[in-house]
């Protein structure tokens, strides 16, 4: 095996030549050249929306309309469906686990190609044997393949996912954020496996926000920004600072508006905030007019803090003082009435009722405020809706339009509008601009700053670092459920944030 | 370690709750006169036949993430067709049975196409199909019953017990064969495993290149064939069939559905076992027998089957409700908590 | 600066790239819903039945025939609207309230009716708590509860039927109550032109219409039905809303149950049999979808009318009861098919 790798030293296992992919409204990947050798771990880094995932989905055959050429082992391939990509030896490990949880491990591993004993029956023994072999390759040799996926740990499930991909004998494996659900011990296990796969001559493409990990595991690093490739660097010739500089670029910060808000007195004080197993002993304060960011990598407990703060999830201990009064919310109804709102991160799953109109969605948070008795008729309150539509320039400006028939950016504006319509003092914003175009982003950011300037507090939970830098006045750093540091306004830039979130730099205690 | 062990046992009991249910019924059977007799067991097993076929069909669809409400009427159709073909048309028995199964397959095909191709919810499709079949079978028989009219040869064979000292009638042996065949198909063939995969995670199935439309249609067709055959066997063994077969008493659909749930098949799909459904049906019928002997009232039967079903639903609801609260928990933080507080449990 | 100008001038803002040209036919079918079929049936009725169809007698008999289904549908619509599929405990809710009412006749007509309705409503409270708060599977739970109730009712009354006049016994007061009870379903206004049952059905529909569109509850229910999680995270008390939906459903079913009992003069556990699916059929014909948050009460009333008119026309032209099932089933499937595909074309599904 290794000999074969040596003779092909100069050939690429994968070569993508000026590939592009256009989505309605955006050019997600723009003329990218990307090449990986066999036996190489190639990291792909970039900020959210830089086009990494789109590039890799292209490779996995999820799009049938990309442009450009993809060569695998020197041959031109058309990867227009998942099964075609599989045939050409591409294996992709998705961010969300694609395992059926209630079904046994071995069947998940061999889905669609269970070995047959004869024309009729599958050969379970053979299947279990093959599955064990695959599990062996990812260091799960002791695991019983007949168990259900739901019975094994998150880490083992992640490794099983890798084993599943190995089963189709790929020559190229793509891993999209494989460590987001793993603890540091488990990450080590994963790296050992990646190392052994590398020795077996596979090409591995590794996407991650954890720069530390990348330096541990990768041979080469390609940086992407705004859908374009910035450059490829051998790991010895680069450093965290260098990478961050390349990822961030320079021009991004310019469109952020000036902060006009004056930071006032304490508005929200949270002490010893704890939900066991999710986040422990979290303390922070938000002042009037202030935008506080809670910065942490995926899985650091950021979203969970937001959800517990508004009573959407339970809380084990801790005190919350809002505007001088101690409060505790059992559900979101109490939170909204008490003065805290929470903009959810996934607009389609938990944010908007997409089959209902803009009016219904904007007014849902204030139904109780708009009417005293039981009577309530949304058409009477079109004024409120029209004002919000104008404020956030929701297009087309039709209150009766179904949210489903708006573009992503405008849907996100509706989500923002429904919280701005409330009279809450503190707004928790969880990824307020994920996956929206730059115009909508700008409008939403301005709305956030205006909201803070009216003497309200904002807690921003975002993995979009330029957004954090542009909006927030102060950032606290969350790492694996604990607060590890705080950065003041004048020191916030993407470098300090990235360093801190990765557990480096002087802002981390 | 201890905790995982205990959890393991609790889930074991839940996985085999159909057997536990049967066990409890059998224990109570000791107190009932004439429960442990060959005759009683023969009649319980024979009586389970129609319900089992319907239960199998219902479970199959539910594993794939669908609901087939038309099973009761498809079975009635099977019973009417087999007797109609034999008595009214004078066809040989074999052909009559084939027609019954074929008609079931046709309705299944219609269900499957509407669900897979027209993308209408299976609950709605099969709800409408109920009325269609009800109409058709009444038109066919003019609302009257069809009987074997003195041609009791096959009826007698179905009701005879070929093996001495065992409570198995031929009818039950056929039923058992159906259970075993479907078990084998679900466990041992690619199609069978695909059924689970379709119900468990449609996206995984798609990424793996499983043809979901074709499989869904096939699933509904098998459901139809099972119902057609089950109804036909029932009709012949009883010697008569009425168009109201699917409605009277505790409707067969309800028994099949109840047994499916008690047997632990997940209503969201992806999990379930036809053996458990079968065991549940036997347990339900045995329970009816015990209640009749001990209490002697039909109404208590309904109360008990309702309580058992409600118990299962409540158990599942509350476990899910509790589980929701620890979704996404970080095991490393739980360990830190345990170190910090000295407690061993969250 | 207007929004449109802003769209054009602000750099980077893309025009809405979603398809905005909506198929006119789809929109028409979607808006008109069940009334499209009502109109077709009307035309068919006019042609086929030549003058008999639009007579007062015939209209009254159509409405009278669907009044019980209609009452239950007015309530069931809330459950379907909340994305909880169907209330399978509808039959026993009807039976229980009817039997309770009959049993309470010796205490006077008021106690009887109030007691009957209260008993039925209690069913909705239990359903609502388990489904709204603890998220039990709505079909399986209501089915299980229906069986439990069925058992309880049968055991409590020894599996027998009860008759208002027998229950009333010899007491003059109770006998009078029994007579009043039995007369509910036989009360007519305007010289027999307008049955009380039809009035009650229309009142319930008007009530449901206002609950659905003009109250806080109705608008919250819409959001809960469309996206439970989003509604919960917007501060809507989802559990309370779903509980109220089930209570309204049971309330309407209980009223229907009492009229049913009054009509047959028999309190029996089998009183509501078949209403679970029959009512759902009418509600779905009326343009509501199992996905929740779609359709409206006006449409549901149309669905009820379709059921009634279809049956009436078929009877008028002499189609047998048996063929009527077939026709109803086929019409139902076709309508649902058209609804589903038009919803999808409009990007609403």
Please tag this protein with its features.
heterotrimer, A: 509 residues, alpha/beta, 19 helices, 20 strands, disordered N terminus, B: 346 residues, mainly alpha, ABC transporter involved in vitamin B12 uptake, BtuC
The average pLDDT of chain A is 85
Strand content of chain B: under 5%
Number of DSSP helices of chain A?
A: 19
Q: What's the level 1 CATH class of chain B?
A: Mainly Alpha
Which class do the helix and strand fractions of chain B yield?
A: mainly alpha
Cα-atom Rg of chain A, whole angstroms? 25 Å
Contiguous uncertain segments of 5+ residues of chain B: 1-7
Total domains of chain B, how many?
Answer: 1
Global shape of chain A: globular
Percent helix range of chain A:
25-40%
End-to-end separation of chain A: 47 Å
Characterization of the model:
The complex is a heterotrimer of chains A (509), B (346) and C (349). Chain A is built from 19 helices and 20 strands. Chain A is α/β, with parallel strands linked by helices. The longest helix of chain A is centred in the middle third of the chain and has 16 residues, at 184-199. Chain A is globular and about 70 Å long. Chain B has 346 residues and is mostly helical. Chain B has one domain (2-341): ABC transporter involved in vitamin B12 uptake, BtuC (Orthogonal Bundle), CATH 1.10.3470. The two termini of chain B are 14 Å apart. Chain C is mostly helical and 349 residues long. Chain C has one domain: Orthogonal Bundle (ABC transporter involved in vitamin B12 uptake, BtuC). Chain C is 72% helix and 1% strand. Chain C has helices at 3-9, 24-32, 34-49, 56-81, 90-103, 109-133, 138-156, 164-168, 172-183, 196-213, 216-226, 228-232, 238-264, 275-285, 297-316, 321-345, and strands at 188-189, 194-195. Chain C has a two-stranded antiparallel sheet. In chain C, helix 4 packs antiparallel against helix 13, helix 5 (90-103) runs parallel beside helix 7 and helix 5 (90-103) crosses helix 13. The two termini of chain C are 35 Å apart. Mean pLDDT of chain C is 87; it is low at 1-21. Chains in contact: A-B, A-C, B-C.
């Amino acid at each position: 095996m290794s000999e074969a790798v040596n003779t092909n030293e100069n050939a690429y296992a994968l070569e993508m030549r000026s590939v592009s992919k256009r989505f309605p409204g955006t050019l997600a990947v723009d003329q990218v050249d990307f090449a990986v050798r066999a036996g190489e771990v190639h990291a792909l880094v970039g900020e959210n929306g830089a086009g990494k995932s789109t590039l890799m989905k292209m490779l996995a055959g999820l799009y049938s309309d990309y442009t450009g050429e993809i060569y695998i082992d020197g041959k031109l391939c058309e990867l227009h469906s998942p099964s075609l990509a599989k045939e050409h030896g591409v294996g992709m490990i998705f961010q969300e686990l694609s395992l059926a949880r209630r079904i046994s491990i071995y069947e998940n591993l061999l889905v669609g190609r269970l070995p047959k004993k004869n024309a009729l029956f599958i050969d379970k023994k053979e299947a279990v044997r093959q599955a064990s072999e695959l599990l062996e390759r990812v260091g799960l040799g002791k695991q019983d393949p007949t168990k259900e996926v739901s019975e094994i740990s998150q880490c083992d499930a992640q490794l099983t996912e890798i084993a599943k991909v190995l089963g189709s004998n790929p020559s190229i494996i793509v891993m999209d954020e494989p460590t987001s659900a793993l603890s540091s011990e488990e990450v080590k296990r994963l790296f050992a496996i990646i190392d052994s796969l590398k020795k077996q001559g596979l090409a591995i493409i590794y996407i991650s926000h954890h720069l530390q990990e990348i330096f541990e595991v990768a041979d080469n690093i390609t940086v992407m920004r705004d859908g374009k490739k910035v450059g490829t660097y051998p790991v010895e010739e680069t450093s965290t600072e260098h990478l961050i500089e390349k990822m961030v670029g320079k021009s991004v910060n310019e469109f952020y508006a000036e902060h006009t808000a004056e930071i006032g007195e304490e508005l929200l004080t949270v002490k010893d905030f704890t939900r066991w197993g999710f986040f422990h002993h979290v303390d922070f304060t938000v002042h009037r007019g202030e935008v506080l960011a809670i910065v942490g990598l995926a899985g650091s407990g950021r979203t969970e803090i937001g959800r517990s703060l508004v009573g959407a999830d339970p809380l084990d201990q801790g005190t919350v003082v809002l505007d001088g009064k101690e409060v505790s919310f059992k559900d979101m109804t109490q939170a909204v009435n008490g003065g805290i709102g929470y903009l959810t991160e996934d607009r389609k799953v938990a944010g908007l009722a997409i089959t209902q109109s803009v009016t219904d969605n904007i007014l849902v948070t204030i139904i109780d405020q708009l009417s005293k008795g039981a009577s309530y008729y949304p058409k009477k309150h079109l004024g409120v809706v029209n004002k919000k539509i104008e404020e956030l320039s929701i297009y087309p400006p039709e209150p009766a339009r179904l949210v489903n028939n708006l573009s992503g950016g405008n849907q996100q504006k509706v989500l923002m509008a429904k919280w701005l319509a409330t009279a809450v003092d503190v707004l928790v914003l969880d990824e307020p601009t994920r996956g929206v175009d730059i115009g909508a982003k700008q409008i939403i950011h301005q709305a956030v700053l205006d909201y803070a300037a009216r003497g309200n507090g904002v807690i921003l939970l975002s993995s979009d670092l330029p957004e954090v830098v542009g909006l927030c006045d102060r950032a606290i750093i969350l790492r694996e459920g604990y607060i590890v540091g705080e950065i003041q306004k004048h020191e916030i830039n993407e470098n300090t944030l990235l360093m801190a979130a990765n557990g480096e730099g002087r802002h981390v205690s | 370690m201890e905790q995982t062990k205990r959890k393991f046992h609790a889930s074991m009991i839940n996985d085999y709750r159909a057997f536990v249910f049967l066990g409890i019924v059998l224990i109570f059977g000791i107190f009932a006169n004439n429960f442990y007799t060959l005759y009683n067991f023969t009649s319980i097993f024979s009586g389970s036949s129609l319900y089992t076929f319907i239960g199998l069909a219902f479970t199959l669809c539910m594993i794939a993430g669908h609901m087939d409400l038309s099973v009761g009427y498809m079975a009635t159709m099977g019973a009417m067709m087999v007797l109609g073909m034999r008595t009214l048309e004078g066809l040989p028995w074999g052909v009559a049975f084939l027609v019954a199964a074929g008609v079931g397959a046709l309705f299944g095909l219609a269900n499957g196409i509407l669900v897979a191709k027209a993308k209408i919810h299976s609950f709605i499709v099969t709800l409408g199909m109920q009325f269609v079949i009800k109409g058709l079978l009444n038109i066919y028989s003019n609302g009257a019953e069809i009987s074997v009219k003195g041609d009791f040869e096959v009826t007698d064979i179905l009701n005879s017990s070929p093996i001495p000292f065992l409570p198995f009638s031929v009818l039950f042996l056929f039923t058992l064969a159906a259970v075993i065949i479907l078990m084998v198909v679900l466990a041992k063939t690619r199609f069978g495993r695909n059924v689970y995969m379709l119900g468990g995670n449609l996206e995984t199935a798609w990424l793996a290149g499983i043809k979901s439309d074709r499989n869904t249609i096939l699933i509904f067709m098998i459901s139809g064939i099972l119902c057609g055959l089950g109804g036909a066997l029932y009709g012949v063994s009883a010697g008569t069939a009425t168009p109201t077969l699917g409605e009277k008493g505790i409707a067969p659909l309800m028994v099949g559905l109840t047994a499916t749930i008690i047997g632990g098949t997940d209503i969201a799909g992806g999990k379930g076992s036809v053996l458990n459904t079968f065991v549940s049906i036997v347990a339900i019928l045995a329970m009816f027998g015990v209640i009749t002997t001990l209490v002697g009232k039909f109404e208590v039967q309904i109360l008990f089957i309702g309580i058992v079903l409600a118990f299962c639903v409540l158990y599942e609801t509350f476990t899910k409700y509790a589980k929701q609260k620890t979704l996404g928990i970080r095991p490393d933080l739980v360990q830190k908590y345990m170190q910090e507080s000295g407690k061993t449990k969250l | 600066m207007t929004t449109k100008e802003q769209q054009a001038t602000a750099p980077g803002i893309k025009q809405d790239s979603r398809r905005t040209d909506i198929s006119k036919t789809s929109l028409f079918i979607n808006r008109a819903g069940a009334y499209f079929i009502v109109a077709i049936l009307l035309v068919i009725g006019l042609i086929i039945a030549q003058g008999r169809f639009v007579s007062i007698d015939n209209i009254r008999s159509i409405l009278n025939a669907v009044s019980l289904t209609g009452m239950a549908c007015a309530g069931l619509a809330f459950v379907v609207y909340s994305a909880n599929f169907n209330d399978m405990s509808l039959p026993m809710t009807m039976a229980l309230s009817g039997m309770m009412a009959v049993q309470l006749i010796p205490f006077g007509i008021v106690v009887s009716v109030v007691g009957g309705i209260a008993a039925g409503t209690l069913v909705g409270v239990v359903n609502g708590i388990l489904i709204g708060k603890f998220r039990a599977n709505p079909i399986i739970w209501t089915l299980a509860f229906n069986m439990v109730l069925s058992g309880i009712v049968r055991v409590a009354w020894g599996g027998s039927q009860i008759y208002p006049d027998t229950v009333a016994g010899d007491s003059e007061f109770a006998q009078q109550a029994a007579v009043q009870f039995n007369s509910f379903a036989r009360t007519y206004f305007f010289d027999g032109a307008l049955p009380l049952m039809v009035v009650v059905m229309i009142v319930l529909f008007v009530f449901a219409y206002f609950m659905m569109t003009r109250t806080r509850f109705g608008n919250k229910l819409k959001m809960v039905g469309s996206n439970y999680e989003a509604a919960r995270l917007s501060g809507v008390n989802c559990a309370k809303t779903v509980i109220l939906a089930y209570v309204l459903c049971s309330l309407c079913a209980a009223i229907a149950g009492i009229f049913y009992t009054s009509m047959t003069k028999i309190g029996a556990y089998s009183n509501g049999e078949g209403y679970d699916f029959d009512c759902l059929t009418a509600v779905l014909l009326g343009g509501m979808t199992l996905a929740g948050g779609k359709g409206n009460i006006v449409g549901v009333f149309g669905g009820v009318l379709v059921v009634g008119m279809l049956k009436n026309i078929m009877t008028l032209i002499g189609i047998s009861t048996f063929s009527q099932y077939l026709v109803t089933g086929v019409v139902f499937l076709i309508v649902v098919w058209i609804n589903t595909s038009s919803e999808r074309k409009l990007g609403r599904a």
